[in-house]
Amino acid sequence: MSTLQAEHVYKVFGRRPADSAAAVRALESGADRDELRADGTTAAVIDASFDVRPGQIFVVMGLSGSGKSTLLRMLNGLLEPTAGRILFGGQDLTALSAGELRHVRSTKISMVFQHFALFPHRNVLENAGYGLEVQGVPRPERERRAAEALALCGLEGWEKSWPDELSGGMQQRVGLARALATDAELLLMDESFSALDPLIRRDMQDQLLELQRTLKKTIVFITHDLNEAMRLGDGIAVMRDGRIVQQGTAEDILTRPADDYVASFIQDVDRSRVLTADAVMDDPEPAADACDCPTVTAGTPLAELCAVSARVPHAVAVTGADGAVIGSVPQDRLIAFIGDEQRPPMYCAEVAA
């Protein structure tokens, strides 16, 4: 069962509700959103549908103005859809009263913002426990749970520090700890790492993936960075001009782009860090199955596979969970998938280095 579902969701901003409703009907009939803009209405999200499974990191990515942040704000009820439904745990958020929606937001959905949103007059522990304070959790339990969340985020010992004493990455960890402390079922992360320097950003991505292996939260992550989407996302939705133009895994999008827009979007992605052996393997070859050369698993990234291929005189054997050979990867096929068939075989060693 899906934790979160969007069913044919539209968000149109117009002068009057009637204008927005008419715009949805026009869009359903095939109108372009540029046509609507001339009438004073803006179609921010158009016919968005997707499912997010429990424990999945679902990434929504697109350039500025694509509608991804508007979509996120509908997922927790900050914006009401003009049409369509948002289902959370089978419950239709669009049908809840204002009080019921506030309760869901305060207990079941947490948000991690782009610019930290920490209170400068509260210390780290108080910031991490703020969501619990809103819920009315007694102070001793609030501080215990906040301290546990900070420890998970690598901030043990910093509880009494002030936000301005922390680096940007540490402040973002406090924001993440605040979301985790409430034990919410769903985390919404809106460009949460985009304000950080590249090295700190990658550290935060590592931190999130490590936490996810332990906590298995359901996460919707918004980003404009394709490499970040490919690194984090179990599932990815690519948005353009308010519409979701492709959904799938990182491998689906890299190997089977839906249109020229997606193809141009992914052309600079480092495939060796995203694709894995199962994306390139062929049937087992006898030479790969009959020697003691190094092998790889189906989930081995191509960058690591290149290092093995450079040391093996034949196709690299790919093994399953039981150790049996399930496929093989010839070096010429590996080079082709990385994206440059004209480079000599030494390229694999260069990628691995």
TrEMBL record:
The UniProt record lists the keyword Cytoplasm: no
UniProt xrefs under SUPFAM superfamilies: P-loop containing nucleoside triphosphate hydrolases
InterPro entries: AAA+_ATPase (IPR003593), ABC_osmolyte_uptake_ATP-bind (IPR051921), ABC_transporter-like_ATP-bd (IPR003439), ABC_transporter-like_CS (IPR017871), Gly-betaine_transp_ATP-bd (IPR005892), P-loop_NTPase (IPR027417)
Domain of life: Bacteria
GO molecular function, one term: ATP binding
Keywords, alphabetical: ATP-binding, Nucleotide-binding, Transport
Segments forming domain ABC transporter: 4-266
Transport is among the record's keywords: yes
Family: Belongs to the ABC transporter superfamily.
Name of the protein described by the UniProt record: Glycine/betaine ABC transporter ATP-binding protein
Source organism of the structure: Streptomyces nojiriensis
